[in-house]
Design a protein that fits this description.
250 residues; alpha/beta; 6 helices; 26% helix
Length: 250
């Protein structure tokens, strides 16, 4: 059963809503429902100004209010499932949903391609038994975790064994050296943040990024992609998604 079958607001100071909660006038964040999509043309931008995806003060202490797309999207690309959503901690839920559907098992290598590490350890844990209930995983994802700390709980529970961080040119080159000629029997999850294409990272060669992402994609059993509205323009994020994966849509 898919828990994201109905949109909702998060109105208490939990999850990503706790950032600057007391200083913000808007006290709620929007989480959309997921839809199955056949093509990238179905990706639509949010036009309801009540439905804020992420809000916090930026590095200049200016309030940054960010909208995402109308929905989360599930694509079949090249016979594998790719889930697209906004804030990165939603990946946590979709990994467990994929495990419950036997698309993946435990002890995966997480190849994390992102401007940020997302590996803060805030002592948040989910037990083995709770991780088997998608309802509990959903609550943990949406009311406990935030965009910085969702990976370590998955590693402590066991669905993730190793984390490979790809955040700069050296990481990309190391990946090509260490992984790209390995056979496809690795248990890999691709966890891509489209903020890796934010304009301030344009000094990293686009073709190199694309080559690595597609190589990981071909090896991966499951793919989670986030658009990080606070960290990258959403139009740019979707444009880069299309540019990289256009040949992969079935």
């Amino acid at each position: 059963e898919n828990m994201y079958n109905k949109w909702f607001f998060i109105e208490s100071p939990v999850w990503n809503n706790e950032f600057s909660f007391d200083k913000r006038q808007n006290k709620k964040l929007f989480v959309p429902e997921i839809i199955e999509a056949k093509s990238f043309d179905e990706i639509k931008f949010q036009d309801d100004l009540e439905k804020i995806a992420f809000e916090d003060f930026d590095f200049d202490n200016k309030l940054s209010t960010n909208y995402w797309l109308k929905n989360f999207y599930r694509f079949q690309m090249w016979w594998k499932e790719v889930v697209l959503f906004d804030n990165h901690n939603h990946a946590f839920y979709f990994w467990y949903e994929a495990r419950s559907r036997k698309i993946i098992w435990d002890k995966n290598i997480l190849i994390h391609i992102d401007q940020h590490a997302d590996t803060r350890d805030n002592d948040k844990i989910i037990s083995k038994s709770d991780s088997k209930s998608l309802e509990k995983v959903f609550d943990f994802t949406n009311f406990v975790l935030n965009v910085w700390d969702y990976i370590i709980p998955a590693q402590k529970e066991g669905i993730i064994e190793n984390i490979v961080q790809i955040r700069n040119t050296k990481n990309l080159e190391d990946y090509l050296q260490n992984f790209s000629n390995r056979k496809n029997n690795l248990k890999i999850i691709l966890n891509l943040d489209l903020d890796f294409f934010a304009s301030e990272l344009d000094f990293i060669d686009f073709e190199l990024k694309k080559k690595v992402i597609l190589d990981v994609f071909e090896k991966a059993s499951y793919v989670t992609v986030c658009t990080s509205p606070f960290f990258v323009d959403q139009g740019l994020a979707v444009e880069k998604l299309k540019e990289i994966f256009k040949e992969k849509l079935l």
